[in-house]
Amino acid sequence: MDELPGPLGTSASLALRLGQAIFSISSLLFMCLDVEFYSYTAFCFLVTIMGLVIPWSLTLALVDAFSVFVKRPTIQPGIMSIVVMGDWVLSMLSLAASSSSASVTDLLKASGGSFCTAKLCSRYQLSAAMAFLSWFLSLASSLFNLWLLASL
Amino acid sequence: MDELPGPLGTSASLALRLGQAIFSISSLLFMCLDVEFYSYTAFCFLVTIMGLVIPWSLTLALVDAFSVFVKRPTIQPGIMSIVVMGDWVLSMLSLAASSSSASVTDLLKASGGSFCTAKLCSRYQLSAAMAFLSWFLSLASSLFNLWLLASL
Q1: Distance from CA of B123 to the nearest CA of A (A)
Q2: Which of A38, A107, A108 to mutate to probe the B interface, most B CBs <10 Å?
Q3: Do A96 and B97 count as a contact with CB atoms less than 8 A apart?
Q4: Is the ipTM, as predicted for this complex, more than 0.90?
Q5: pLDDT in tens, A87-145
Q6: Does any domain span residue A121?
Q7: Could you tell me the residue range of the domain that residue B58 belongs to?
């Protein structure tokens, strides 16, 4: 299974991690440069999860960068299990957070502008879309890593 | 990896599939024995996804029952890939559907009973909870099957 492109310690994995971090940070910024998100549980959930995804992705991006540019360490099954578990949990949570905030945004928008202005609504939408993209990349990472772990 | 309890064709898998079917059916019933769900995109999404999960789980439950009670067929990687793909897609979709309907229910409930009566709100909540349980069992099935596929 050495030909699979994305597991921990490769440049593809580094690209995936950086993408996750960028999308999570932009989702967080779209949501947080504004104070009204405290009123909605779904938006608070999204902010919490994005606040968890960012340090996780950045840490693993550092590991990948070290592995690509300096020296490739041997992959230990124990550490891989922790990475796979964390990836899975975070990707599930970010899927849940992004879909719930997307549906809440949809509901707020459908209620005809009485709960959010057009600018605010499109900001919520952008935030949910960024969270979806971050979930997608995180799912790709976790699939590659799970596959690597299972074939170790 | 023969000691893993849940892949396709075992009695544990049969139990998981039956649980998925039961929880999806109850989620669908809690949502559909009522006509107001058409107004909310998240609830329509939940109904659609549950309508996909039910035939999928029942079909695979039949396969499992045949395999347990009649004759165990040899597992072919091609068929297993299709099963794993379908399981993954459905479990992702049901997580998204259940979390979005849970957040919409929460928002409707927080708005103080002007959009749904207390009885209707608790019914939406029960439906979302059943969808979460169905997602959890479907995640377990797909993890077991993916693990089996990777170790084939």
Answers
A1: 18
A2: A107
A3: no
A4: no
A5: 989 999 999 999 999 998 888 888 776 777 778 888 888 999 999 999 999 988 888 88
A6: yes
A7: 11-70+80-150
**Residue from the list A95, A104, A147 with its beta carbon closest to the beta carbon of B104:** A104
Which residues lie below 8 Å from residue A84, measured CB to CB, with a gap of 6+? A142, A145, A146, A149
Q: Is B136 on the interface with A (CB under 8 A)?
A: no
Tell me the chain B residues in contact with residue A106 when contact means C-beta distances shorter than 8 Å.
Answer: 41-42
Give the model confidence (pLDDT) of B44-94 as tens digits: 899 999 999 999 999 999 988 888 888 777 777 788 889 888 998 999 999
pLDDT in tens, A53-62: 999 999 999 9
pLDDT of B2 above 70 = no
Q: Do A101 and B96 touch (CB under 8 A)?
A: no
A5 within a domain of the structure (yes/no): no
How many domains is chain A built from? Answer: 1
- CB contacts of B89 in chain A (<8 Å) are none
Render the burial of B78-95: b for 16+ CB within 10 Å, e for the rest: eebeebbebbbebbbbbb
Contacts of A86 (CB under 8 A, 6+ apart): A56
What is the rounded distance in angstroms from the CA atom of residue A25 to the CA atom of residue A48?
A: 12
Q: What is the pLDDT of residues A1-13, one digit of tens each?
A: 455 666 777 888 8
Note whether A46 contacts B: Cβ–Cβ < 8 A. Answer: no
Residue B4 lies in a domain: no
Distance separating alpha carbons of residues B143 and B152, to the nearest angstrom: 14
